[in-house]
């Protein structure tokens, strides 16, 4: 099967609330996909349906070639949930070993510990771990299942900069072997650096689906900024031009045209920079814009 996750025309209601509204989503194998959206967008309900924790009212969900519950039982999909706890009073290695016995074709405990960067902490009790270390244990409990697909909710929360870098290095190695990662995060810089694809949900629907670069272009204007002598005339460039103490800011939908016009003109400019539309701006526009 080339498809890791298939969601077809799925709707899920809780009373009068439509949590997921006619969503269709196909994710091929071997991709790293970010699932973004504000609270109440439908992300958690979608993840719950992928894990077989709840059933859609209409439509269908498959993971690989199986229904979600069968995929979970077979170790084909595993999830790292943000609010999950850890069993107290046991060591890290003991907990991972307990987890691996739940799956038909798991990694060894040593492999999962190494993948999560926990080898040196294997004998430490889980209730004596830092927040970042506990987060890595949660990841190891997913990795030990050796799943084809991982669902990760805020996977780098409480990790320091080095821990985040090591985590995403491991994730890239994981997907390079043909596995799939679907992750939710509030760190949009992680999306920029690590996601092949971004799916944005709002009001129970998918409102955007594309690469990070494609979503950035939907944010609107880029910014071209440069310096002119204080007594220079305001340049005429495509876009909205403002001048403040010799600094010129141009907000434009066509930064290439603005730069070409500046370069071909008479202005003695310096310190030129071009700031593309940000993923943050695009995310805010997509998730706050009222549906038409």
Reading off the top of the CATH hierarchy, the class of the largest domain is best stated as: Alpha Beta
Q: Count of DSSP helices?
A: 10
Overall mean confidence score, pLDDT: 89
Instruction: Give the ordered list of helices and strands.
Output: EEEHEHEHHHEHEHEEHEEEHEH
CATH architecture of the largest domain: 3-Layer(aba) Sandwich
- CATH homologous superfamily of the largest domain - what is it? P-loop containing nucleotide triphosphate hydrolases
Range of strand content: 25-35%
**Number of separate domains:** 2
Structural class determined from secondary elements: alpha/beta
The strands making up the biggest β-sheet line up spatially as 5-6-7-3-8-9
Low-confidence stretches: none
Structure description:
The strands form 3 sheets. A 6-stranded mixed beta sheet has the order 5-6-7-3-8-9. The two termini are 37 Å apart. 32% of the residues lie in helices and 29% in strands. With 292 residues, it is an alpha/beta fold. Strand 6 (149-153), helix 6 (161-176) and strand 7 (180-184) form a beta-alpha-beta unit. The protein folds into 2 domains: 3-216, P-loop containing nucleotide triphosphate hydrolases (Rossmann fold); 221-276. The radius of gyration is 23 Å and the shape is globular.
């Amino acid at each position: 099967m080339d498809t890791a996750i298939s969601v077809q025309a799925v709707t899920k209601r809780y009373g009068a609330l439509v949590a997921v509204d006619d969503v269709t989503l196909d994710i091929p194998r071997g991709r790293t996909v970010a699932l973004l959206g504000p609270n109440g967008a439908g992300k958690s309900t979608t993840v719950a349906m992928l894990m077989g924790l709840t059933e859609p009212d209409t439509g269908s969900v498959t993971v690989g070639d199986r229904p979600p519950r069968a995929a979970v039982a077979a170790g084909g999909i595993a999830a790292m949930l943000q609010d999950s706890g850890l069993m107290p009073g046991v060591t890290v290695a003991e907990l991972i070993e307990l987890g691996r016995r739940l799956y038909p074709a798991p990694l060894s405990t040593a492999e999962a510990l190494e993948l999560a960067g926990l080898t040196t902490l294997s004998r430490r009790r889980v209730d004596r771990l830092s927040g970042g270390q506990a987060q890595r244990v949660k990841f190891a409990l997913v990795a030990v299942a050796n799943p084809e697909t991982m669902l990760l909710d805020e996977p780098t929360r409480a990790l320091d900069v080095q821990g985040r870098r090591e985590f995403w290095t491991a994730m890239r190695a994981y997907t390079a072997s043909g596995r799939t990662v679907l992750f939710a995060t509030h760190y949009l810089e992680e999306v920029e650096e690590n996601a092949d694809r971004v799916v944005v949900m709002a009001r129970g629907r998918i409102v955007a689906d594309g690469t990070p670069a494609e979503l950035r272009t939907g944010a609107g204007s880029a910014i071209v900024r440069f310096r002119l002598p204080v007594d220079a005339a305001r340049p005429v460039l495509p876009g909205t031009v403002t001048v403040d103490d010799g600094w010129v800011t141009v907000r434009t939908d066509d930064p290439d045209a603005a730069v070409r016009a500046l370069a071909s003109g008479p202005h003695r400019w310096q310190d030129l920079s071009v700031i593309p539309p940000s993923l943050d701006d695009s995310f805010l526009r997509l998730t706050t814009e009222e549906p038409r």
